[in-house]
Amino acid sequence: xxxxxxxxxxxxLTNAVLSVAHQHFLESGVDIIETNTYQxxxxxxxxxxxLSEEEAARLIKSSVTxxxxxxxxxxxxxxxxxx
Length: 83
Prior knowledge:
Elements: H1 12-27, H2 42-49, H3 53-79
Helix pairs in contact: 1-3, 2-3
């Protein structure tokens, strides 16, 4: 199956790679960090992945709560700097 949302996937491997990428960005000195949800929308996830609106919203939110936030929290504990 070809997925139309080429820049947005939800898998343990993708999530681990994103966590490492976020960590590298922080180590390079960024002040602002973004999630990988630039192509994701509730409508797009519902259409292309056949998710409910609730499932789509959970998936988008998880990019912050399950991937980015833990990395930022670890960074704060290590450096005292908030991102």
